[in-house]
Amino acid sequence: HYVGINNKHGPFTNVNLRKAYWAALDREAMDKARGGELVTNVMTHFIYPEIPGFEEAGGLAGPKVDYNEHPEGDMAVAEKYMKLAGYPSGKYTGSQTLQVVGSTGDPASEDAEIANQALKNLGFKTKFNLVDQSVMYSKFCGVVTEEIDVCPNVGWLADFGDPEAALSVPFNGKYIVTNGTNSNWGQVDVPQINGAMEAAELVVGTKARAEAWAKIDRELVAQAVAVPYDWDKQPSIESKDVAGVGDVWNEGSWDYSFTSLK
What we know:
alpha+beta; 3-stranded antiparallel β-sheet; 8 helices
């Protein structure tokens, strides 16, 4: 799961504001709301565990940038980037009210509240709404014309065990959908990244693909295109006479096509 941030419209077109928000967000609290270490790891980049490229992109620790270093949130770092964005006080002093749309029901609503509070801590005024998850996607966060500024409860699962499946649809500008439900929630459309993805699609071999897409992952972090906070872990239980096989694409839930009796 990550916080979708509108890269195309509004204040967060400024990369330093995006970095400030990343630094300010208490990702540990967001993960604790989801159940803590048993079922989550604090997310630090966008290729997730068990997908090729995860380790090459930084593993659990993620890229070594200051806005990613303190998952509990660091207002000093956040204020540094606010000043770089043109706000000398370290707080947002613009006139725009941010549109924030999250999902009802715990833990999503609690995560959304934490994300909204971090915006307020940076000086933003927000219009905060919680709606049913299906409505959040179909009427707000997935509709380009709504121009929602922040979507705290979005997430993506790769359909197969390859880094392209983890990164391309939610972050490639060519997949922005303007006449239907859009899954590039931040409208991320960086020509350099789009070009790198087009080239990486053609790379052959697991190791080579892992390295190519890890480089793209690191660039997504450098651009702070969204704020990652949760890699889900599936706590699965098996009998001693069962050889369980989990689906990487489905958080590790049992794949009954391959799970067997010993």
